[in-house]
Amino acid sequence: MLPKVWPAIDLLGAKHRCRCRLRGEQIEARQGQFDFSFLDTLLAEAREHRVRLILLWFATWKNGSPVMHRSG
To answer: For residue 23, what are the CA distances in angstroms to 14, 53, 61, 70?
Structure first.
């Protein structure tokens, strides 16, 4: 999908601050096994296209569900 993204960024002129959402499972698909290849590719291509990224990290929740906090 990334080859389609860079021309769109060029067209929009959004090279200075592009927000990119990352999910924990993109890096750690299995607990304790990390694979940074997607992030490495994303950063390398962004540099190649002179795009500055703002990475938004969305971590996974333990056991796949968010913890609900209740007040009172």
So the answer is: 22, 15, 11, 25
- Its pTM stands at 0.63
Which tokens hold the place of 9?
Answer: 């960024």
- Residue ranges in 1-72 assigned as alpha helix (H): 2-12, 24-27, 37-48
Q: How far apart are the first and last CA of the chain?
A: 46
Reported as a single tens digit per residue, the pLDDT across 27-40 is 888 888 889 998 89
Cα separations in angstroms, 47 against 50, 63, 72: 5, 35, 49
Residue-level length of the chain: 72
Instruction: Determine which helix (DSSP H) or strand (DSSP E) holds 57, and give its type and residue range.
Output: strand 53-58
Query: pLDDT category, 63, cuts 50, 70, 90?
Result: very low
SS3 47: helix
